[in-house]
Amino acid sequence: MNCELSTVNRKLSRVEPRFVIREISEVGPDIARLVVDAPRVARHARAGQFVIVRPSGDSERIPLTICDSNPDSGTITLVVQAIGGTTTQINAMRAGDALSDVLGPLGLPTEIECFGSCVVVAGGVGAAIVLPVAKALAEAGNRVIGIVGARDADHLILVNDMDDVCEEVLLTTEDGSSGARGFVTNALEAIVGSHDIDRVLTAGPIPMMRAVAEVTRPHDIPTIASLNPIMVDGTGMCGGCRVTVGGETLFACIDGPEFDAHIVDFVSLQKRNEAYHTFEACRLRDTREELDA
After folding, report:
1. Which of 20, 69, 124, 288 stands 20 to 30 A from 217 (CA)?
2. Does the model's pTM come out above 0.70?
3. Are 54 and 146 members of one domain?
4. Residues 151, 243: one domain?
C-alpha cells in the first residue's frame, strides 16, 4: 500500500499546474487584472457568470466575476481588488504562478436579448462585472450607454474597454478629478430624464446599487443588480450567500448573482456583508505580515 501511495504521489508531483497566471497587470490602486489558464471555463463562460478561486490549497474560497473569456487561448480574465487577505494574496502573485483552484463557470448568465436602449452602471470594480454584459448586449443589437464611477480618477478602471463596446461612456468621480463631479446616480438621472431607456444593469457597492434602483423605480425601468454577498462554495450548499428578494430567500450563487433591483432587500444584504469585517481586517493584517516576511 505504501509503495502504491508513493507511486501516486510521484505522479501527482509531475502534474503541471492547470491555472497558470499568464499575465498580471495593475489597472488601479491595489487592483489587478489577471489572465489565467482555464480552458474548460473559457469554453463555457457567459456574461454575468463567475468563478470560485483559491490562490493556494489552504486559502479561503472567493467568488470573482469572469471579466472576459477567450476559448481560443483557453484563458479567462479576472479583476481583483486587494481588500482582504485572499485578494491581497492573489494580487501579490506573478505571471507564471498558478492559482490552486478555479471552479466555474457558476451562477446564471445575464439575460441577453435585444431590449432596445440599455444602461450599464458600474461603481469601482463593478466595471469588471458590467463590461462583459455591455459587450453581450451590444452584440445582441442593443444601444448601450455605460456609466462608470469611482471616488477619484485613479480608481476608474476599464474605461477604454467600456469605450470599445458602448455607444457612449459617462464618467463620474466623487472628487471631480475625472469626468463629472458627483455620483453615478447623477449621470443616470440625466439619462433617464432625456432618453427612453428599456433596461438598466448595475454592479458595485451595495449603497450605490440601491440608489440606482431608486432612480429607475419611478420610471418603471427594469433594473438588474449583480449582488455581491459573502459566498463560500458557490454551488448552493452552504447558504452563506442567501439574499432576500421580493420577500423570498434565494441564493446568489445558483439563483443569481443578478436579481430585480427593485425588490432586493439591500438593507439585509449590507448587514450580512458587514458581519465579517473584523475577521477580514485581521486576516488582511496577517496576510500582509506574511508577504512582508
Report:
1. 124
2. yes
3. no
4. yes
Query: Cell 432586493 belongs to which residue?
Result: 264
Whether 261 is in a domain gets the answer yes
H or E segment to which residue 22 belongs: strand 19-28
Please spell the DSSP secondary structure of 182-223, one letter per residue: S-HHHHHHHHHHHS---EEEEES-HHHHHHHHHHHGGGT--E
Cite the DSSP H helix spans in 53-158.
85-91, 127-139
What values do phi and psi take at 90, rounded to 5? -65, -45
Beta 223-226 vs 242-245: how paired, if at all? unpaired
Distance CA 276, CA 1 (A): 44
* Distance of alpha carbon 80 from alpha carbon 127, whole angstroms: 11
Same domain, yes or no: 121 and 99? no
Domain interval for residue 123: 117-274
- pLDDT tens digit sequence for 221-274: 999 999 988 888 888 888 888 999 999 999 999 999 999 999 999 999 998 887
* CATH number of the domain encompassing residue 96: 2.40.30.10
Are the C-beta atoms of 130 and 120 separated by less than 8 Å? yes
Set of cell numbers at residue 187: 449621470
Task: Mark whether 54 and 122 lie in a shared domain.
Answer: no
